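Technical annex B. To support the medicinal chemistry partners, we prepared a structural model of the target in complex with adenosine-5'-diphosphate, based solely on the information shown next.
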Amino acid sequence: EPMIIAENVEKWYDNNFHVLRGVSLTVNRGEVVVVMGPSGSGKSTFIRTFNALESYQKGNIVIDGIRLSHDLKNIETIRREVGMVFQQFNLFPHLTVLKNITLSPIWVRRWTKAKAEEVAMQLLERVGILEQAHKYPGQLSGGQQQRVAIARALAMQPKIMLFDEPTSALDPEMVREVLDVMRSLAKTGMTMVCVTHEVGFAREVADRVVLMADGLLVEEGTPEEFFNNP
Ligand code: ADP
Ligand code: ADP
């Protein structure tokens, strides 16, 4: 049973701009898919439909056997299953790193503060920033903030992780530390869909690379097929 089935997803805006023109993609359990393509081709819009951050007018999306609907309960369920990391970390600036991570598990998963903090500290260790736990996001480098964002998403124990250009806002020297965390996450068997321009990451980590252009999926293949056939 695939983790993500997107079938002929279409979205357009009131001005008739057709941002998704019938996009289909199936992602298997444990698979890492990298989505590439020019700016404005619909990559971000497409992956945001997987956790109901983006609505669409036509098509079907099924996440781990659950079909997406407009029902609020359904959206809550899906959001628990699908973690997301954004270009602009989106951390709460007035909360410490630890609180940023424990907030959702406490409120959404109803964990005790003690359990949420235990899990958070384990995750901070895993992403290599345990010593930053009691600082505020503004006191961290961009790379550290992005690692907090990854830890925060993982704290909800999602089945799928979406990454939307997670290194695009980072200084070059911080890109690697974030890609390394993503690489080790892929090795744990996490199902991942990553919009990124990082060709090295796509070559080494992706099981499959897909190319979007003008709201369509125009090419797909293994990294070997994808990068060696011009
Ligand atoms: P990518 O991630 O590939 O850069 P996006 O999914 O961000 O592409 O593409 C969004 C496209 O949709 C852009 O061309 C943007 O201008 C357009 N768009 C976004 N919001 C609206 C809107 N409200 N009305 C019309 N066009 C929009
Ligand atoms: P990002 O690139 O950060 O994902 P966009 O630039 O696509 O986001 O969109 C930022 C905001 O501007 C969104 O609310 C989107 O709906 C709006 N927007 C983007 N492009 C257009 C457009 N061509 N017409 C109207 N609104 C747009």
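Notes passed to the chemistry partners:
The first helix runs from residue 43 to 49.
The two ends are 33 Å apart (CA to CA).
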